[in-house]
Design goal:
A five-stranded parallel sheet has the order 2-1-3-4-5, sandwiched between helices. The chain is globular and about 35 Å long. With 126 residues, it is of the alpha/beta class. Strand 3, helix 3 and strand 4 form a beta-alpha-beta unit. 40% of the residues lie in helices and 19% in strands. It has a single domain, classed as Response regulator (Rossmann fold, 3-Layer(aba) Sandwich), CATH 3.40.50.2300.
Length: 126
């Protein structure tokens, strides 16, 4: 079976585990990382079909992770999540090409719609 892989990068263990469990319950393969640097060092870059990253993390932020991937020529549809939503951050994320910008706790149905649309290659939406 060739399941789509969703990578979740979030330093908040409960959020990371909750999102990973949700993604798996929908039939996707899920990989969890507590730091952006660990994701970048992993062998999951070329296996990741969609990335869900926390906006604010110690070390590299989710947006910095997304920007680094883009600069490296790695195109992964990215969904940014944050416990501290700010309009300026949302605009910056959208300008960087982030697919969705969601507030924590994420509405599960909205998150799943973002994942499905990102995997289908539809236009970005928040």
């Amino acid at each position: 079976m060739n399941r789509r892989t969703i990578s979740v990068v979030d330093d908040d263990r409960s959020a990371r585990e909750g999102i990973t469990d949700l993604v798996r319950s929908m039939g996707y393969d899920a990989r969890a990382f507590d730091r952006a640097e660990d994701f970048l060092k992993s062998n999951n870059l070329d296996r990741t079909d969609c990335l869900i990253a926390d906006m604010r993390m110690p070390g590299m932020s989710g947006l910095e992770l997304h920007d680094r991937l883009v600069t490296s020529g790695i195109s992964i549809p990215t969904i940014m999540i944050t416990a501290f939503p700010q309009e300026a951050d949302r605009l910056r994320a959208e300008q960087s090409g982030v697919y969705c910008y969601l507030s924590k706790p994420c509405d599960e149905q909205h998150l799943l719609k973002c994942i499905d649309a990102a995997l289908a290659g539809n236009q970005r939406r928040s």
